[in-house]
Amino acid sequence: MSGPSEQTIVRGVCPHDCPDTCAFLYHVEDGKLVDVTGDRDHPMTRGGLCVKLNDFADHHYNPDRILYPMKRVGPKGSGAFARISWDEALTEIKTRWTDIIGTYGAEAIMPHAYLGHQGTLNGLTAGDAFFNRLGASVAEKTYCESGSSTAWHMTVGGTGGLDIESFAYAKYIIVWGMNMISTNLHGWPFLLEAQKKGAKIVVIDPVKSRTAKAADWHIAIKPGTDGALALGMMNVIIAEGLVDQDYVDRYTIGYEELKGRAAEYPPERVSEITGIPAEDIRTLAREYATARPSAIRQGVALERSHGGGQAIRAITCLPALVGAWRHVGGGTMEMPIWEFPTRFDRICRPDWIKPGTRVINELDLGAALTGELALDPPVQSLFVYNSNPVSQAPAQAKIVEGLKREDLFTVVSELFVTDTAKYADILLPATMQGEQLDIMVTWGHLYLMLNQPAIAAPGECVPNVEMFRRLARTMGFTDDYWDRTEEEMLLDFYDWDAPQLQGITYDLLKEKGWARLNVGLPGERAPHAEGNFKTASGKCEFKSSMAEGGNFVIPVWRSMYEAMQPGEYVDPLPDYVPPYESAASNPDQALRYPLSIVSPKPHAFLNSQYANEEHKKARQGALRVMINPADAAARGILPGEQVRVFNDRGSFEGPAELSEDVVPGLVMANVGHWTSAASSGASVNAISSDKHCGLGRAGTFSDNLVEVEKAAAPMLVAAE
Ligand SMILES: Nc1nc2c(c(=O)[nH]1)N[C@H]1C(S)=C(S)[C@@H](COP(=O)(O)OP(=O)(O)OC[C@H]3O[C@@H](n4cnc5c(=O)[nH]c(N)nc54)[C@H](O)[C@@H]3O)O[C@H]1N2
Ligand SMILES: Nc1nc2c(c(=O)[nH]1)N[C@H]1C(S)=C(S)[C@@H](COP(=O)(O)OP(=O)(O)OC[C@H]3O[C@@H](n4cnc5c(=O)[nH]c(N)nc54)[C@H](O)[C@@H]3O)O[C@H]1N2
Ligand SMILES: [Mo]
C-alpha cells in the first residue's frame, strides 16, 4: 500500500467554556494533528465548528505556546522568562510556599481558576483538592453563572429545564440577554427550525446584537432592568386573566404573594424603568402567555448587574404562571448541567477544607492583592490556572497594581504568555485539548462526552491534573487521590449507576465519544408537565423556601460553597433591584459619567482566548467602542476616531464605531481583547466595578457608568 500516510481518527470534544461543547474528530497523520472537524452524527452540534475552532489543529502548533517551565528574569510584567526544568520549578514553588506558610500560614496562598478548560479533570475545579489539602484560602469562583444558578435553584431547583433541542417545538421564543449567534451557535438552528414552522423569535437585549438582527422582534432594554420587565409581564398576564390557574394551583407555591408583588409593576412604571414602550410590554406579555408552547432562552448576561439574580428568578417564574411547562418545547432553559451525575464532592474534596478557612471571592482579586480588603494574613502567593484575570476580571488597574508587588510570589499555568502570565514568577506549561484525556462538563446540552488524546504533548506540557499530581508529591501529600490514573479518576468522579447514565459506560464513551443522558428525547421531553420541580417543595417556588432558610449550598463547579453568606437577607419573592450605577439609582455619578456600558462576548474570541492569533484578530477587529451617533455628535466624535472611555476606576481607548445598534445613553465594547494589543494598554475591564450581583456574588459587568471623550493626540498618550 503506497500513497499518503494513513489517517487515524480520534474522538474528541471542544474544551471551551461555551454552551455548545461540540463533538470533534481529530485527524492524525504520523503523530501530527492535521485537522479537527465536527462530528456530523452529534445531534446537537451536527458537525459544524465555529469561527474560533475551525483551525483548531493549527492552534496546537502556534509557535507562541509555552512549552517548558520558565522563571522570570526581568521586572514583573516585562514578559522576560528563561527556561528551567520541572524539578527546578517545583523546588522553587516548594521553597517559597514553605517559607510563606511558616511566616503567614497557608491561607496566605490564594488559588485563582476559572474555565479556560471545561473538563472534569482539568477544568474549573482541577486544583480544588490540592489547595484544600494544602490549607490555602478557598477561592470562590463566581465570574459566571453563580447569579443565574442561585436564582434557578431558588425557583425551580436543580433541573435541566427545557432542552435546547426541544426549542424546535416552540411557537414563541424569547431569547433574553443572550447573543446566541455568537455564544450558542449550535443552539440557534433549533430556534430557526421553530421559526420556519411559524414561531416568533423575540430578543431582549440593550444592543441590537447579531441575534437581535436575526429575530422577528428586538426589544431594546436598559441594562440591569430585566426584573422590572418580567414583573411587568406578570402584571399584564394576571390583570388580563392569562394565568394558567390550574397549573399554578397544582404545581407552584406563593402565587398570592407574587400577585401582590406584580401589582407594583404596571406597564407604565416598567416602561419608565426599562425604556420600553408600555404598549410593547403589554404585547409581549399577551403573546408570550397565549402562544402554546412558549419558550425562554436565558443568557448568563442577565446576571451581570446588582439585580441580575432577582431578575432571573422573575423570568424563571414566567413559564409556570402561564403553564408553558405542560408542553414539549415549553418552559425555560438556563443550564442543563444539573442533570449530570458529577460527584463534585469527590473531585473537590471539601472535606479537606479546615473549618474556618477563609474564602476570597475571585472578583475581589484586585482588592485582595492591593490590601484594599484588609486580609490577615495578606495574600503572599497567587496560583493562577485556567484563567486570565487581567483581561477578564473587574477592576483591571487594581489587579495589575497587585500583580506588580515584589513580595507576591505568582505562579501561572498557561498555554500562552497572557496579560496575566506576564506577571508570573514561575510559568508552568499546559497541554491543549488534542493532547489530553477528559470527560467534558457541558452546560448547553444533555450529552456526556469524552475527549481522548490524539497526539503527544509538545515540549514538557502537562495536563492540569498531572500538574496538581506533581505539586501534591512535591508538597509531600501521600493521599491516594493523586495515585490514580486519569481513567480511574473519571470512573470515580461520575455516578455511573445514576438513572441518567443507565446504559452508558466509560467503554461506550471511548468507542462512540458521546451519549445522551437518559432524561427523555427532545420530541417527548416535558420534565415539568406535572410539576416535579427539584425544589424542597417539589413545586415552582414563586416564594422561595431557600431564601427563607437564609443560607444554602449549591453543588456547582464553584465547588459547593454557600450561595449566601450566613444570615444574609434575600427577598423570598422576586423583585426589581435597580442597578448600582444608573441615572435613576445614582444621579450624582451619572452627572459625571452619563453613559451605561455593556461588554459582551467577542464573536471571534472565546473570552480572551484566540485574541493573540492574527487571523482571529482580523475577524474580530480591534477593541472598538460602539456609541450612538447622537452621543458621538454631542462629544464631537467622528466615525473611527480614537476615543477614551473612563470613570473613576480607570480608562481604555479604541476607535469609535458610530452605530444605531446602541441607543443613546449606551455604549458597548467587547471583553476579551488583550491589554498588550490595545492601544492604551488597557481593555474594557479597566472601567468595570468589582461590586457583586445581589445573588450568587456574580460579577456586575453590565452595571457600570462611564464617560467617553476624544482621546488625546497619540503623541500625548503616555506609555505605561
Ligand atoms: N467585562 C466583562 N468581563 C467578563 C465577562 C463579561 O461578559 N464582560 N464575562 C465573565 C465570564 S462569563 C467569564 S466565564 C469569565 C472568563 O474568564 P476566564 O476563564 O479567565 O477566561 P479566558 O479568557 O478563557 O481565560 C482562560 C485562560 O486559561 C488558559 N487555558 C486554557 N486551557 C488551559 C488548560 O488546559 N490549562 C491551563 N492551565 N490553562 C488553560 C487560556 O489560555 C486562557 O488564558 O470572564 C468574565 N469577565
Ligand atoms: N463567541 C463566543 N462565545 C462564547 C463566549 C465568548 O467569549 N465568545 N463566552 C462563553 C461564556 S463564558 C459565556 S458565560 C456565554 C455568555 O453568552 P451570553 O449569555 O450570550 O453573554 P454575552 O455575550 O455577554 O451577552 C449577551 C447579550 O446580552 C446583552 N446584555 C448585556 N447586559 C444585559 C442586561 O442587563 N439585560 C439584557 N437583557 N441583556 C444584556 C448584551 O448586549 C449581549 O448582546 O458565552 C459563551 N460563548
Ligand atoms: Mo461565562
Give a brief rundown of this model.
The chain is of the alpha/beta class and 720 residues long. The protein is 27% helix and 17% strand.
Describe the protein.
The chain is an alpha/beta fold. The chain has 4 domains: 7-59, N-terminal domain of TfIIb; 70-140 and 340-447 and 455-482, Rossmann fold, CATH 3.40.50.740; 147-334, Dimethylsulfoxide Reductase, domain 2; 587-710, Barwin-like endoglucanases (Beta Barrel). Helix content is 27%, strand content 17%. It is built from 24 helices and 27 strands. Strands 5-4-17-16-15-6 form a 6-stranded mixed β-sheet, covered by helices on one side. A 6-stranded mixed beta barrel has the order 22-26-23-25-24-27. A hairpin with a 2-residue loop joins strand 24 (642-647) and strand 25 (650-658). The longest helix has 19 residues, at 86-104. Mean pLDDT is 95; it is low at 715-720. Bound molecules: ligand MGD (2 copies) and molybdenum atom. One ligand MGD is lined by residues 17-18, 144, 176-179, 182-183, 204-207, 209, 221, 223-224, 226, 299-302, 304-305, 598, 600-603, 605-607, 672, 702.
- The name of the CATH topology of the largest domain is Rossmann fold
CATH structural class of the largest domain: Alpha Beta
So what's the overall shape?
globular
Query: What is Rg?
Result: 25 Å
Estimated share of beta-strand residues: 15-25%
> Low-confidence runs (pLDDT<50, min 5 residues)?
715-720
What is the terminal separation in angstroms? 61 Å
The biggest beta sheet is recorded as: 6 strands, mixed
> If strands are numbered along the chain, what order do they take across the biggest sheet?
5-4-17-16-15-6
Q: In which range does the helix fraction lie?
A: 25-40%
The number of E-state strands comes to 27
How would you state the average pLDDT, rounded?
Answer: 95
What's the quaternary structure here? single chain
